[in-house]
Design brief:
Layout (H helix, E strand, L loop, with lengths): L4 H9 L9 E5 L4 H14 L4 E4 L11 E3 L2 E2 L2 H21 L6 H15 L4 E5 L16 E4 L7 H4 L3 H8 L8 E4 L4 H14 L3 E3 L5 E8 L2 E7 L4 E7 L4 H18 L6 H9 L8 E4 L3 E4 L5 H15 L3 E6 L7 H8 L5 E4 L10 H12 L4 E3 L3 H17 L6 E6 L2 H10 L21
Parallel strand pairs: 1-5, 1-6, 2-5, 6-7, 7-8, 13-17, 14-15, 14-17, 15-16
Antiparallel strand pairs: 2-3, 3-4, 9-10, 10-11, 12-13
Helix pairs in contact: 1-3, 1-4, 2-8, 2-9, 3-4, 6-7, 10-11, 11-12
């Protein structure tokens, strides 16, 4: 039976640090991390001191806990652990089960934000909502990004059941900011909002992207917010889904501010500084190599659409390493129409599907002649590069590109292998970058 007893007991011993500052709480299936990062960037542009808690990480655990746009320093991370550890030992002695890894990290984040202190914390749910360790905090704004099937063993095997679990972050006194949802998810979220009697702001009705066109290095947007319209926003990210995430983030910050529309120049500045490492991120050119964290069919679908729209490759080669407990067949079906050659491999995670099994599944979707297997990710990248180079030298319009995808672990390890290991918390509102990670 899931419980918040352990994390709540630990927070009590720490003095309930999660109540020392207002919280914007973010859940959903896809887009949570990007939306949280975007909201934090907007808040920082307004001169607020911010905390940002996200998961999973790409390169270092320290990415998960950021203050003022910077990951905790190594010394700061150790200090946060040392602050929490004695109280965690007490809780472990009182509870039937020991605190989990995620519960410890969550407590460290809450405590670090209180010690800073921050003016506001943007907190991303780890899994689900109701029973997630982050849900001992009460969000002043509860954001729900698009919901789809994922983690069905834990959250339920229907979109409506998953939405009902994620709706647990919508609590009395909050404002609910909801991305456009499938009908079953929308119904579940609306029921929860009605039960706790909170105002609901829905994408497409109360806010949304009203204009979008491709631009150099990203897209040019006009966004209708809760209290105003924001034209001429340059978002240096690819895909309609990132525009949607940005609109949700903007609405969340408007709801948090509660003072009408935001300053257009600050919004424009913040949008230009937004980053999303590991989300359709170009990490190398000639050939172009893109890493992406898509790990379910819905995420893969929007990623493929974005690559097709923004890059127009004549040939796309994909490298795929996935967790064995995911809907791998569904992801393969989304990739197949856009990908000429698929290189299957594994990442370093224990849950990673073995390359031979992934090859078997992929051959059933792509045909065996379009699938190559590699034992390791670095070998797979080398094979994909050779295939892309060969395609670029051949006849026909358009260049060749490489998409490395399948999980956050895959994206993080590919970034490391390709020399793009620094993960920034979003850059300063003036465009300055935050400190990198080892």
């Amino acid at each position: 039976m899931p419980t918040l007893d352990r994390i709540a007991a630990l927070a009590t011993l720490l003095g309930d640090p999660q109540r020392a500052y207002p919280v914007i709480h973010v859940t959903g299936t896809n887009g949570k991390t990007s939306t949280a990062r975007m909201a934090e960037t907007l808040l920082r542009a307004r001169g607020l001191r911010t905390g940002l808690y996200t998961s999973p990480h790409l390169s270092s655990l320290r990415e998960r806990i950021c203050i003022d746009g910077d990951p905790l320093s190594p010394e700061g991370f150790v200090a946060a652990y040392d602050d929490v550890a004695p109280y965690a030992a007490i809780v472990d002695g009182q509870q039937a089960l020991r605190l989990s890894f995620f519960e410890m990290l969550t407590a460290m984040a809450f405590a670090a934000f209180a010690d800073a202190p921050v003016d506001v914390a943007v907190i991303e749910v780890g899994l689900g909502g109701t029973w997630d360790a982050t849900n001992i905090a009460d969000g002043q704004v509860a954001v729900v990004t698009p919901i789809a099937l994922d983690h069905t063993a834990y959250l339920g095997d229907t979109v409506e059941a998953i939405a009902a679990e994620k709706a647990g972050i919508i609590k009395p006194g909050a404002v609910a900011v909801l991305a456009r949802q499938p009908d079953p998810a929308a119904r579940a979220l609306a029921r929860q909002a009605a039960e706790v009697a909170v105002p609901v702001r829905v994408e497409g009705r109360d806010f949304g992207v009203t204009s979008r066109e491709l631009a150099v290095g990203g897209q040019l947007l006009e966004v209708s917010g809760l209290d105003g319209s924001y034209p001429g926003l340059l978002l240096p990210l690819f895909g309609a889904y990132q525009a949607q995430n940005a609109a949700c983030a903007l609405a969340a910050v408007e709801a948090f501010s509660g003072t009408g529309s935001l300053d257009e120049d600050l919004v424009r500045q913040a949008f230009a500084a937004m980053t999303a490492p590991g989300r359709l991120e170009v990490v190398r050119r000639s050939p172009v190599v893109i890493v992406d964290s898509a790990h379910n069919p819905a995420g893969m679908a929007v990623s493929v659409d974005a690559v097709t729209e923004a890059f127009g490759f004549g040939t796309l080669v994909a490298v795929l390493a996935v967790s064995a407990d995911k809907d791998v067949a569904g992801m393969l079906e989304q990739l197949e129409p856009a990908v000429a050659h698929l290189v299957v491999t594994r990442n370093s995670a224990s849950r990673s599907m073995e390359p031979q099994e992934l090859e078997r599944l992929a051959a059933g979707v792509f045909g065996p002649e379009r699938v190559v297997v590699a034992a390791r990710l670095d070998d797979a990248i080398d094979i994909a590069t050779a295939l892309a180079d060969e395609a670029s030298d051949g006849p026909g319009p358009g260049g060749a590109g490489i998409l490395i995808t399948g999980s956050t672990t895959t994206a993080g390890e590919a970034r490391l292998l390709l020399g793009a290991a620094d993960v920034l918390a979003g850059g300063g509102p003036d465009g300055a970058s935050a400190g990198g990670l080892p």
